[in-house]
Design a protein that fits this description.
Blueprint: E1 4-5, H1 10-14, E2 18-21, E3 29-31, E4 36-39, E5 44-47, E6 51-53, E7 58-61, E8 64-67, E9 71-73, E10 79-80, E11 85-88, E12 94-97, E13 100-102, E14 104-108, E15 113-116, E16 119-121, E17 124-129, E18 132-133, E19 139-141, E20 146-149, E21 157-158, E22 165-167, E23 175-179, E24 181-183, E25 189-190, E26 193-197, E27 201-213, E28 224-227, E29 230-239, E30 243-248, E31 254-255, E32 262-267, E33 271-276, E34 283-289, E35 294-300, E36 306-309, E37 312-314, E38 319-324, E39 327-330, E40 337-339, E41 344-349, E42 352-355, E43 359-361, E44 366-371, E45 406-409, E46 416-421, E47 428-434, E48 439-445, E49 450-454, E50 461-469, E51 472-480
């Protein structure tokens, strides 16, 4: 029997606790054009067969709608299904089709759910069981949306197509969001992305979107040591962009030697190289991002045309080399490149090595750079361009900011830090963050030019000082030693 729902009175709905739509001949359950099906708070509607919302029809769900088979919304424009919860909990793979706007979505199907149209969730996305596959469609989480559950290889969002898992952020957001993404290429693999924002400006309709591929990034210049995995991050509607990002990979992704890998932004070019991987937790980290793109892990044996080294630390005991066929850029624009006691690094370029503000070598460290005249890059050492700096002072050879907004000193420090506003007469807002994005100090200067704070009770590491004055903004790094 085919069940057509043309109208259901509100008073009737209030008397019903659970409605089960059962179709013994396996035909679709239809909500026909021009009609509204209302599910009141405290009410559960269970559809045992395909639930189809025809174009011009409305499902106004303030309770719970449980779909045991497919949900199809044929409305030509994005269509809200109400303020309640939609649950997909069948025993065979289910599809959610159409441009659905959901408040809450619960996924509880071990065989998986396919998103068959661009879908928005503005409340909770609850991952109870099963994987959600996006294909060519986007799943957008609204500004107040949250992920509920414990994502894993059996409970995650598959984003290996052209579709993205997108998250919108509320104005003034500062903090962390984890994208529970992965792939099902062969064996399902969970490889989440974590974004940590430090107070950018979010316009209405903003988002950061994530997709990934379980394969080597398609660049012939990546050889030797790399991951068979890369992540694509896009964004819109975000200004004063500053964030950190981490990328979880699997040991099966590694080609070559894992502890040689660094987190690298490979698109857009030039390559930007961030810190070394954590070969224990298998996590790549990119700190101080001011833009997004495609990220992977690599230490290529093929020399890139140009390369930038950003927020890199060469720890004691590590000897490494970075090169570029043309230009190798080290630090600058508020970023750092630090060689610690016992660390050693060689820089080789075919045309130019730019060692900018933020490059530091500490006592016992060694920085060795040269321009190759023979076309030999990493592995061949000639006369040094910059030798060991025994005082831990800046070794930057070029100024990045012609008229800096602030001075931050002493740097490095074990205790007191002074922030001096020198490039404007406007009132300044000063905020201090850890590199994990935690805000622990904030001050507004009204007519004052200096602000002093202490790192004496903070762990050794790198901290960020952000100053906003009028239409000017600047970020400085402070090293706690």
């Amino acid at each position: 029997m085919k069940l057509y729902i043309s109208y259901l009175a509100k008073d009737m709905m209030m008397l019903i606790i659970t409605i089960i739509i059962v179709n013994t001949v396996f035909a679709d359950n239809l909500i026909t054009s021009g009609t509204t099906l209302k599910v009141q708070p405290g009410t559960t509607l269970v559809s045992m067969d395909n639930l189809v919302i025809k174009n011009g029809a409305t499902l106004s769900n303030s309770g719970t709608v449980v779909c045991k088979k497919n949900l199809t919304n044929e409305n030509v424009s994005p269509n809200s299904l109400g303020s309640g919860t939609t649950e997909v909990s069948g025993t065979v793979q289910q599809t959610i089709s159409g441009q659905n706007i959901l408040t809450n979505l619960t996924v509880n199907n071990a065989t998986g759910v396919v998103i068959g149209g661009n879908t928005a969730v503005n409340g909770n996305l609850t991952l109870t069981n099963g994987r959600v596959t996006l294909g060519s469609n986007n799943l957008t989480l609204g500004p107040l949306a949250a992920i509920v559950g414990t994502p894993s290889a059996s409970m995650m969002i598959i984003v290996t197509g052209t579709g993205e898992l997108r998250k919108e952020f509320p104005a003034g957001f500062s903090g962390t969001f984890v994208y529970p993404v992965g792939d099902d290429t062969g064996t399902p693999e969970y490889s989440p992305v974590t974004i940590i924002f430090t107070s950018p400006a979010f316009a209405p309709g903003n988002y950061v979107g994530v997709s990934l591929k379980n394969e080597k990034y398609p660049d012939a210049g990546i050889t030797g040591n790399y991951l068979n995995r890369y992540w694509n991050l896009t964004y819109t509607g975000i200004t004063n962009f500053l964030c950190n990002a981490t990328f979880q990979y699997l040991t099966d992704d590694v080609v070559g030697t894992e502890n040689k890998l660094s987190c690298s932004k490979v698109n857009p070019v030039p390559w930007i190289t961030y810190g070394l991987t954590n070969a224990i937790t298998h996590v790549l980290t990119a700190n101080g991002l001011t833009a997004l793109g495609s990220f992977t892990g690599l230490k290529s044996t093929t020399t890139p045309v140009n390369q930038e080294l950003v927020n890199v630390v060469i720890p004691g005991g590590l000897t490494t080399c970075y090169d570029a066929q043309q230009i190798l850029t080290v630090a600058g624009n508020g970023t750092t490149f630090i060689v610690e006691n016992g660390g050693s690094v060689t820089l080789v370029a075919g045309n130019k090595i730019s060692i900018l503000n933020g490059a530091k070598v500490y006592s016992g460290g060694y920085l060795h750079g040269y321009i190759t005249a023979t076309g030999n890059f990493c592995g061949t050492m000639l006369a040094p361009l910059v030798a060991s700096n025994q005082n831990g002072e800046n070794v930057g050879m070029e100024e990045v900011l012609k008229t800096p907004l602030i001075k931050v000193y002493p740097n490095p420090t074990s205790d007191v830090v002074i922030v001096e506003v020198v490039g404007t007469n406007d009132n300044a807002n000063i905020t201090v963050y850890s590199m994990l994005g935690g805000k622990f100090c904030q001050r507004q200067l009204k007519g004052e030019k200096k602000y002093q704070f202490s790192l004496s009770d903070k762990p050794v590491g790198i901290y960020m000082v952000r100053v906003q004055a009028g239409d000017k903004s600047e970020i400085a790094k402070v090293v706690k030693k």
